[in-house]
Amino acid sequence: MLKNPDDDTSVTLMMRLGQSPADGAAWDRFVERYQPMICAWCLKWGAQPFDADDVAQQVLTKLVTAMKTFRYDPGRSFRAWLKTVTQNAWTDFAKSQRLRTGADPGRILSIADSYDALADLEQQMEEALDRELFELAMHRVEKRVKPTTWQAFRRTVIANLCLG
User: By residue range, what is the domain housing residue 85?
Assistant: First the structure.
């Protein structure tokens, strides 16, 4: 099911944050949109749920600073960058846990560096980016056509895509 076209897409949301880093509503939306994704990546890499939450908080804290100078480049994937930041935070977290608990370093590092998890994550990110771009394009087209034309498009093309 498609999202409400009035919702911020991640592209417009990133632009809002870049232009106004103190925008509390934009940060709330950003956290709502990306924290579950960050946690899901960590869980796939072997984190326990509470550890995934800790890593997500670390990543989001880093992003508060990074978004002050962030400029969206449509030729690059924001989610790929976010995944890299998350993976680095997860690796740092796993290493710190290993040092603190004396756990088997090979096991923790192999989880953090799992090729299968990375390949799966990359595929999910590409699919998510495609959905984002589709949503952004749809939002722009909707603004340019008559409401009746848009409704006809939604009922014929989009309904068939969702059912197919």
Answer: 10-163
